[in-house]
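Quick log. Single chain, no ligands specified.
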Amino acid sequence: MVLGKVNQIPFIFVSSVVAWRTRFIVEVIGTDGYVIVNGRGRSDGPQTLTIGRRWGWQNASSQVESELSSVVMIKDSSISKETIAWLSESDQVCSGAQAFESMKFYQKILSKEEPDGL
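-> predicted structure:
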């Protein structure tokens, strides 16, 4: 788990390599509403997008009833596309050197150092 701020906006990032249940959720909560992206269209099911207003339950029978929700992707085929791009050394996916730089950035987060450029 990583807790932090980007431009004074707090965030929480949680990841697990041992959880047996696949899940992918991104929640953005603002002062007047929220957006939730749930799933990736892979083994965790279709990807859905939910948009809700703050105190939406005041104009509906419940908060859930006040939300707008839609399926945005049934099946994600990005793994095969990314693998083909990686094998053909396409610039649409990161190189080994770029992946290494990402891991160095990740290590700085874990060690609580100030990352370069932030």
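The beta strands are 2-6, 9-13, 25-29, 33-38, 47-53, 68-73.
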